[in-house]
Amino acid sequence: MRIKILASALDDLHTGCLFYDKQGEGLGTYFLDSLFSDIDSLVLHAGIHQKFFGYHRLLSKRFPYAVYYTLEKDLVVVWRVLDLRRQPAGIHQALGQQRTSR
């Protein structure tokens, strides 16, 4: 299984990294390492996660973030990596805008 991370998901990761860098030295790097590890796990576990708003949702093991992805044959497409502390309507809106802008 291959993984493709869209620019929108990379932007989400960058924003999260900046936030956690402000919280403590090295925390942003730890955030990225943790989230990329979660994303890498999709090579083995893609498709087993419950669907929300039309996307599979992988919950991060260490941070309050979720990886929203779809499956296309042998390809996992990571659309967004969103902070779960947002309002559900904001998450739904972010995911809805993503599908139309691809």
Protein model, in words:
This protein is an alpha+beta fold and 102 residues long. It has a single domain (2-101), classed as YaeB-like fold, CATH 3.30.2310. It has 4 helices and 5 strands. It has helices at 7-23, 27-40, 42-45, 88-101, and strands spanning 2-5, 51-52, 55-59, 65-72, 75-83. A hairpin with a 5-residue loop joins strand 3 (55-59) and strand 4. Helix 1 runs antiparallel to helix 2 (27-40). It starts with a strand and ends with a helix. The mean pLDDT is 92.
CATH architecture: 2-Layer Sandwich
Biggest sheet features:
5 strands, mixed
Overall mean pLDDT: 92
CATH overall fold name: YaeB-like fold
Helix-strand category: alpha+beta
Q: What is the CATH homology-level superfamily?
A: RelE-like
Number of helices: 4
Radius of gyration: 13 Å
DSSP, total strands: 5
Q: Termini separation (Å)?
A: 21 Å
Order of SSEs, N→C?
A: EHHHEEEEH
CA-based shape: globular
CATH top level label: Alpha Beta
Oligomerization category of the chains in this entry: single chain
Low-confidence stretches: none
| Range of helix content | 40-55%
Number of domains: 1
Strand line-up of the largest beta sheet: 1-5-4-3-2
Q: How big a fraction of the residues is strand? A: 25-35%
